[in-house]
Amino acid sequence: MRLLIQKFGGTSVSSHERRQLVIDKIIHAIKEGFSPIVVVSAMGRKNDPYATDTLLSLISDDFKSNNLLATDLIMSCGETISTVVMADELSKFGIDSVPLTGGQSGIITDSNFSNAQVLNINTETLLNLVESGKVPVVAGFQGQTKDGFTTTLGRGGSDVTASLLGVALNAEKIYIYTDVDGIMTADPRIVSEASLIKEISYNEVFQFAHQGAKVIHPRAVEIAMKGNIPLVIKNTLSNCGGTVINNTGSFNAESVMTGITHMSNRVQLRVSLADNKNNDSYAVLLDVLAQNMISIDLINVFPKESIFTIDSKDLEKFNEIMSVLELKYTCIENCSKIALIGSRIRGVPGIMARVLKALAKANIEVLQTADSHTTIWCLVESKFTDQAINALHKEFSLG
Asked: Which domains does the chain show, CATH number per domain?
């Protein structure tokens, strides 16, 4: 039995016309010899009748905050509605399907409502349905406690549901259908020559996700990686081959880089020992920021100076902390952190030199850099973001 998980996002199931395309994908999988298990999100996006945000708007903010159990119940309704609607439309094509909530499909979680962690997956129901020739249609984003209460897995949780079921059932592949062809070498709204990445490693996708790209939930990637189940990002609206995510990525790529992404709204802070002599707070600054839940990145710590970035939303709190500590610092607002990602850069000399040379040629000042085995980061002023990404995309022939 060749099991295939097919997850369809909210835009894929948002209308009758798009659900017909979903059915085409399911029928195609069956013709290829797969036994599909379908996972669906709530229909549409904010302001659509059954979208999660629309359902949440029916209850007060105080109730949401003080009764997470009830909030999870109403949040789960959108996905549950999708399962029944999808099963109805499948029946019109002679496909016998069974709509299931997350709990009915065997996903058992703890009681951390709104962000539940999965404790166990009982696959018996799903396997029995598949073996009897039926197509299970599972509500994504949700599970159930041992006591029978509905829980949700956090935003983007339908991707997580697909990976959880894929690993638990040892599926051959997990297809994540969305409204884009797959993962691109850069944001096509910024780089007109951006191209589809046909194959990419789990580790590279983690970097894409953590550095601003929003194609798939990082938890879904982590779960699939642990189970060594390939993920495939595909477009419901086309027959594009999509992007395959696996352990190795592509060995045949012409460039050492796989792609480029970025994060805006960064603020660079510089704190020097010379400006803060005889102030003991200088030595414990990073600890204080951590205690106040201010996340820092691009950290360059030297004997007499510390340079790092924070999100612009944390700047006001940072200013208050520095005032209390009586520490002096310099600040550059409106920055963007550009990330060049590629597992093949490890051990290759001259990559950083090429990055800096390409940006210098474009007359873009680099405020800060950092690197790892798979990623090179550059901090630039936000007004140069698009220009910098295009220059680097061209330098590494990613088009």
From this structure: 2-179 (3.40.1160.10)
